[in-house]
User: Fold DUF2256 domain-containing protein from Arenimonas terrae.
Amino acid sequence: MAAERRDPRQPRPEKTCPVCQRPFQWRKKWERDWDRVVYCSDACRRGTPR
Assistant:
């Protein structure tokens, strides 16, 4: 069975990356792990500057 369904008319959940301070939105590939997603990208996760 599919995970929790979202209404496409509702705004997507949003978080702020602790490294670059940029907001990022929910993505389909993060559907099962959204609660554990902290960083917006692999570069921020590694701590490399943009």
About this structure: The chain has a mean pLDDT of 85. The helical segments are 42-46.
